[in-house]
Amino acid sequence: MLKKILPLLLLLALQSPLFSQPETTAVMPTELPYREIPDYPESFTPENVVARTIDGVGFRFYWATEGLRPEDLAFRPTPESRSSEETIDHILGLSNLILNGIKSLPNIRSGEETSPLAFEVKRLMVLENLQTASNLLKQSGSKLEDMTIIFQNGENKTEFPFWNMLNGPIADALWHVGQVVTFRRSSGNPFNGKASVFTGRVRE
């Protein structure tokens, strides 16, 4: 009797929620940050100017990665080059550096690692990192001179002032977003021409 029941119990167990794969799409938000650029800050301050620059990175990244297909993500112009998805991995690392620098938190990882996460998850993480960084800069009392870029390798710690954020991770993120735009054009899926990087709006 037990031999007849055992296969049925095993089948029921495998069909239970404990063994089922999670539905990652169920937790993804319906609208991602930076489909359009946020409104202007109320005043010109150093912090607001940097926040606006980060918003520009977010807007460009949103449209650079909108509607990418598997063949676009796999595209690389030469065998030695990063693919589009590997470039997005690097942008994810840069967005972590930007956010950690604004929070003055140490960076343990180099930012060069290939992420095993799904493309949609990585895309969301980049956009949310940039949005959080921008919002922190816009908060009352935030000061660029109080923010430090910290790299930590075991007990060794190296620190840089926020100046390096401007010519480093922020400028580098813009550079690599441009690569994604170029790569997707080469793989036959151009950037949406209705997204205006000047106005930060989508032309209808």
Task: Describe this entry's structure for a reader.
The protein starts with a helix and ends with a strand. It has one domain (47-202): Up-down Bundle (Four Helix Bundle (Hemerythrin (Met), subunit A)), CATH 1.20.120. It is mainly alpha-helical and 204 residues long. The protein contains 6 helices and 5 strands; from the N terminus they run ααααβαββαββ. The model is unreliable at 1-26 (pLDDT under 50). A hairpin with a 2-residue loop joins strand 2 (148-153) and strand 3. It has helices at residues 2-14, 46-65, 70-74, 84-103, 119-138, 163-186, and strands at residues 106-107, 148-153, 156-161, 195-196, 201-202. The strands form 2 sheets. The chain has a 3-stranded mixed beta sheet with strand order 1-2-3. The chain has a two-stranded antiparallel sheet with strand order 4-5. The longest helix is centred in the last third of the chain and has 24 residues, at 163-186.
SSE arrangement:
Layout lengths: L1 H13 L31 H20 L4 H5 L9 H20 L2 E2 L11 H20 L9 E6 L2 E6 L1 H24 L8 E2 L4 E2 L2
Parallel strand pairs: 1-2
Antiparallel strand pairs: 2-3, 4-5
